[in-house]
Queue: 2 jobs
Job 1
Amino acid sequence: MKQKIANIKNTVWNGAGIGLIVPIVPGVLVWYLMQNVKALRHADLLLIGCIAINAFLMNYFFKLNKENIGRGILSITFLWAFVFFFYKVL
């Protein structure tokens, strides 16, 4: 697994792709739970946990000296935060 991660090219676009795709998987699971479990109907902050996964990934790539991937993840994380903000406001 580490070899596959090490082979990822150090580009901002790769980081943006990772930052876009990774929160979707747990986000779909959390959304499903929010819709079908009565106790979690108003637990919107679980969605923030899905976005927080990007922070761990960003830190991991910075430790591997792949700064451009980390920057791509960071920029997409801000976009996810804006999406969550508009979801909460509307």
Note: The mean pLDDT is 93.
Job 2
Amino acid sequence: MNIYFQEVIAAHVAIERWLGEGAGDEQALLARFSADYSMITLAGSVLDAQGLHEFFHAQRGARPGLIIELDEMTLVAEWPAGAVVRYRERQMLPEEETTLRWSTAVFELRDGRPQWRHLHETRLPG
């Protein structure tokens, strides 16, 4: 499997555990993301690396029972130092409406490992 697809899956497993169970290593989770990270959230806000760190720190275990499912991963583009991956993400919480989104992630290779550089999410009708 493509290393970028592997990273998308591994990151979402770590995020699901962090938010849903409060489990995992915060530094290892944050190390996945570039110091230059940016994100366009579902609400249309721009989040930088510091904002992401603050979000994860504040939200540890805040979504008990969270399940994240991924599908339709596509390698949009790849070059020697990075790639763009598009995937569909479904987040489910007990007794809450499921959210479905398209996500497009830009990766940089750092020491041979993919690092998240940018993420853009677009909500889909549920």
Note: The radius of gyration is 14 Å.
